[in-house]
Amino acid sequence: MKMRILSIWVMLEDSLHFITVTATENTQHRRSQSNLSGASGGHPNDWNQDDHMSPSCNDVSGRELQPRRQRRTHIPDKPNYSLNLWSIMKNCIGKELSKIPMPVNFNEPLSMLQRLTEDLEYHELLDKAARCDSSLEQMCLVAAFSVSSYSTTVHRTAKPFNPLLGETYELDRLEEFGYRSLCEQVSHHPPAAAHHVISQRGWTLWQEITIASKFRGKYLSIMPLGAIHLQFHSSGNHYVWRKVTSTVHNIIVGKLWIDQSGDIEIVNHRTKETCQLKFSPYSYFSRDVPRKVTGVVADSRGQAHYILSGTWDDKMESAKIIQSSRGGSGSEGKQKTVYQTLSPKLLWKKYPLPENAENMYHFSALALTLNEPEEGVGLTDSRLRPDQRLMEDGRWDEANSEKQRLEEKQRAVRRRREAEATDALDEECDYDSGREYEGYQPLWFHQRRDSVTGETNFVYKGGYWEAKERQDWSMCPDIF
Predict the structure, then answer these.
(1) Per residue in 381-397, pLDDT tens?
(2) How far apart are CA 107 and CA 115, in angstroms?
(3) Exposed site from 8, 91, 164, 223, fewest CB < 10 Å?
(4) The dihedral of CA 108, 114, 116, 122: what is its sign?
(5) CB neighbour list of residue 281: distance below 8 Å, 6 or more residues apart
(6) CA dihedral for 90, 96, 97, 101, sign (positive or negative)
(7) Which residues lie within the region annotated Disordered (predicted)?
């Protein structure tokens, strides 16, 4: 009798659990396992064995281009400087950390704009998704992409540099990978960054992210606010989702470690299909694997088609649902749904870290290249920020002095801008029709109301790459 592997998933109203069964063709079941590892046995070679994906998703013709330049593979090792963290953090409990000056000893030599750009580490998932004929299969890959952006954070407990107002960061990978990315710090209080990416391989991504952070005594909560938009050119499928909360533990005593927790809802606003992802918080008493992520992909009527499973620091898999049924109530009276699926297939697998990564801030291969000096970038680019460059070179005392200089320079500009606004307001009061003060305006992004979410966001208005082509940066402010 022919055997095949099926999976049974039992979903409560607010959580997802499953068991794996070995079944014959007439689906007589025998239970075999009850944890995530039992159904997450995907291997890297599963990548090209996507039985659940349409042929269009797996077409790789013309996909890969040879890199045009050799990028760096290492940076100077992190110096071994000691600093009493508690002596600084004890005065920060309950405060917004973006307003508190911190020495570079707590930083990594990248800006928040560069960290935001790291979301593109697994851009090939979007290249593959752009080739999908099925929007549900596309949703699985978009969900894997949304999870993959957390994979670099598992060992990255140092904070990135807060960008200066007007600071930018470009990542031009047009020749190698077909995309161009631009970030700009559009607000300082609250700190907000706008990001725009366009790919020749069929997709555009944009987001405006405001980072809210609170120190709670034993841990630090980092809450990214703002929506991420992704649109595929050929189909017009428009996906929107938001990030989960990151928590840095053992701020005072013990080894720092980071966790991701919360729910992500991804919505395709063209088809109304959805994906519900759950990032399970770490619990010492839980029998689940750490960093677990589970999810369900459903059509516009709410009917589930795929189960997603994995961990945010390693891999994600999808399993196609072939049968579902309503079960009885659980121990807490919640309704059960039982899903029978085909065996899981690998969607995404994390790349191994480079050799000696533990001495290079645990940077990924992409992160090691982000601050590499590059000719022709805008004068406000993070690569040109002197305190960050000094820190990367291991000259931390000089970096701290430069950081203080830059922050004081920014404060002086802000005071001057506030004085101009006050003068304009006084003129308006004196003459009824005084000059209107416009306030700070970003160079490359402007505010527009989003037709999908109804929110007002900063979106790319164009002009940056044309200015780069001309090498005309005369419009750039002097922020460094």
Answers:
(1) 999 999 999 999 999 99
(2) 12
(3) 91
(4) negative
(5) 247, 259, 261
(6) negative
(7) 25-76
